[in-house]
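User: We ran a pulldown and think these components assemble together. Before we commit to crystallization trials, I'd like a predicted model of the whole complex to look at. Sequences follow.
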Amino acid sequence: MSSLNRALSWLLGGRKPLASHLLLAPATLWLIFLLVIPAGGLIILSFAKNGPYGAIVWEFSLQNYARAFDHKYLPVLFRTLAFAAATTLTCLVAGYPLAYFLTFRAGRWRNALLVGLMVPFWSSCLVAYYSWMIVLGKEGLLNSALIRFGFLSEPIGFLYTPFAILLGLVYFYLPFTVLPLYASLEKVPRSVIEAAYDLGADRWTAFFRVTLPLSLPGVVAGCVLTFIPCLGDFLTVEILGGPRYYLLGNLISNQFMMAQDWPFGSALTTLLLIGLVGGLWLYQAWEKA
Amino acid sequence: MSEKVTRRGFLKAAVLAPLLPAFLDACRRADDRRVVNFFNWSNYIGKDTLPDFTKRDGIEVRYDLFADEDEMFAKLRAGAKGYDLVVIGDYLIPRFRALNLSDPIPTGALKNINNLSARFRRPEYDPEEGSVPYMWGTTGIAYNKKKLKKPPTSWWDLWDEKYKDRVSMLDNVRDCIGVALLMLKLPATTRDPEHFRKVRELLVKQKPLVKQYSSSSYLNSLVSGEIDLAMTWSGYLFQTARENPDLDYVIPKEGTHLWVDSLTMLRGSRHRADTLRLIDYLLEPEVAAANANSVRYASPNEKALKFVDPVLLKDPRVYPTGAMMKNLRLNAVLDPEQSELWNQTWADVKVA
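Assistant: Here's a predicted model for the assembly, 641 residues in total across the polymer chains.
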């Protein structure tokens, strides 16, 4: 941690204004070129029309938005919300004890374990999901192990089920929950917890009355960071999910790939973006309050 | 370490680094090495086909793969530059032309163009012959002989309740909508909304039985026992069946579509002459035959047939017999409006 701090202060050059502007430039350019311009392009495209063979016709129209509010997409929306909520909840239930352990119990292993938490991110999630296919398949590791130890007589089709999707999502998004939790638990002053003990609180009381409330900002941040990207995920269902668990992300990716209807795909993306920004705005308003 | 990274040095590098792509691009432009950039389906060329070409003609082939036709199309449409040659399905040819993605191949200039069988010359989807047929095949049913008591014979077997969760369908508009129209005995070129409503109903009805819609990983699922029946492309199954003799292929009795994949030259190609040489090479009888023997699709090259492995040539699953041919139809050529109806119907099936 301290070496990271040193590296950062070296980079920031002891807060020289010019240097810091220069150093902010890459990040700003990055945001402009890779976020603002593409997102702006998508928004403009969402008002265009779809021409013959998927050619884009630059005529202003709202028809893409009108189409997006068709009731046939409602189940997709609800399914997406349900999967995102279930993922967030599972990540929270599994992630909180993990973050707690990392903060208070891991001792000198803490940094190694934090790195370990990030290791799955070093490979593409495509590779990770294909590995999960090997684990979950009918002839996969999980089935062979369960049969070997006599829990099953026939292999179960784990793949292409809601279970596989949830597993994939939790696997991928768990660090997004754990890291903010860890950061906020880390900030809980040990002296306050000790004070609770001194005042006669037992472990559980101290946890529920002191530690947990003080870590709530981390809980909320972790949930937001997990829930939001989940809403746009399409790869998980594409690889681990079956045809009956089509999510918003798949709907959008299909407009660009299979249906070749980029304006409609852009309109759906814009709506998702509005939903996300609106949600984040609410969250910030809540945080300030 | 004598060289220390100074802050100034770091910043200089940070400023110069973004210029690197421009520099590399300039190098590329100056590049007059003989090269063809070839974009093809995965598992769709013989092992020695391209190395032999490079050895003989001294032209390097940079070979890039796709596993999903929609993805390839979206990539090229979005402006992926640098490819000279691509293999695309018959139905994409008018689309590539309409979107100005391809340039017609001057087929008259090809030495070996007349090796092609007459039935693949000037097809309906490409009356001007600006593309060169590469392979052809059929869409049928792959199944695991060990897992099924009775081999499937009909497309309706994929709708049979007893195969619930054991079926995979190609994740592809052309094949699914095309087959559904065929099953309902509706004309492939219809634009009647009522027909498309029936097609949608038929495919939605099947959805609870379908384990996956997939165009690439379904044969792995078939091999690993995840599924037992799959709508498949012929040669892809025969490639897999080489190592998995339990797998078999059937052309359903209702018939199916015969499709043709063609070599297409991309607009903006900077290596036109060498691309033409590669196409001419692929049309040579021995080369085409070795290629077809390896990928196990049928060759449209008449002169190549005498070099094709007799086992494949006599196999009616690969080269359907005259009687079966009557049941096979070329993919219908769709105008933009019909094409939109197909896409919409398929999109609705996926959402349902």
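Strands of chain A lie at 49-50, 56-57. That may be worth checking against your pulldown data before setting up trials.

User: Thanks, that helps.
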